[in-house]
Amino acid sequence: MTNAKKVTDFDAFLSNYDTTTLAIAATFILGIITVLIFFIKRSTGSGNSILFMGINNAGKTAIFLNLIKSENRLTITSMKQNEGTVQVGGKSLKIIDLPGNERIRKQYMDQFKKSVKAVFFVVDSFTLPKEVKDVAELLYDILIDGTLTKYSPTIVIVCNKQDHAMAKSSSVIKNLLQKELNTLRTTRAAALDSIDQNEKVNLLGKKNKDFEFSDLKFKVEFIESTIKDNDGKSGLSSVTDWLEKVA
Q: According to its UniProt record, what is one Pfam family this protein matches (predicted)?
């Protein structure tokens, strides 16, 4: 078939439809494509950054430095954000370590949360039982954050310092956090109700059901890590494996 014949056939096809019908069809197709792009972005996060968060002394900055600079430093307290790039799976991922200090943490979270692919929430597996309230408070704020809820990045709970003899396993930590988040959800809802009956409460999990991570729109995963294992070798393979999976 010649090019001239093809053009004639196409013109004949178009002549069977008026301009309005074609415009509606084009708008419909464009709408479907837009929706598909939106859900793809929601499932993978809106950017290419990994946000490290956690309360003070959880070990997140030590993990950050070991990933970026391969430094076996066990304890570091940061008062401002640390930024770096790690190469995994032949690709680059930007890693942002936010301060654990409560007074300045929110400022940096608001600055970087729109570019997040995943949030690495680091907890101290040894001290968690006595710090679970503070840990749950921060995690709760992350899970109900409007921007993060919109883009739904994966939340990775990093159960750090597994080299300690009394460290809790990831399954125990998961149960402890679920119970504390359930309690916190009840107390926060009650506090809001006592202040303003008309204020909308951003419910964590499902109504009339004890909180479970599986009820969230977020994908939540638990991994275990340590800067050094009992043989003095790096125990961050679970972290690097996960980074490679999402790179």
A: SRPRB
Alpha helix stretches (DSSP H) within 152-227: 170-195
CATH for 47-246, among 3.40.50.2000, 3.40.1350.10, 3.40.50.300, 3.40.50.150?
A: 3.40.50.300
pTM, two decimals, is 0.75
Pair of tokens at residue 175: 């149960």
E strand or H helix at 241: helix 237-246
Angle (CA) 117 123 128, round 5°: 150
CB 123 within 8 A of CB 159: yes
What are the structural domain ranges in the chain?
A: 3-40, 47-246
Q: What is the CA angle 106-153-55, rounded to 5?
A: 35
Of residues 121, 114, 120, the one with CA closest to residue 150: 114
Local structure of 201: helix, strand or coil: coil
Q: For residue 95, give the nearest of 123, 70, 67 by alpha carbon.
A: 67
Q: Is 93 helix (H, G, I), strand (E, B) or coil?
A: strand
Q: Tokens 């790096």 map to which residue?
A: 234
Count of positions (residues) in the chain: 247
96 Cβ contact list (under 8 Å, min separation 6):
49, 50, 51, 52, 81, 82, 83, 112
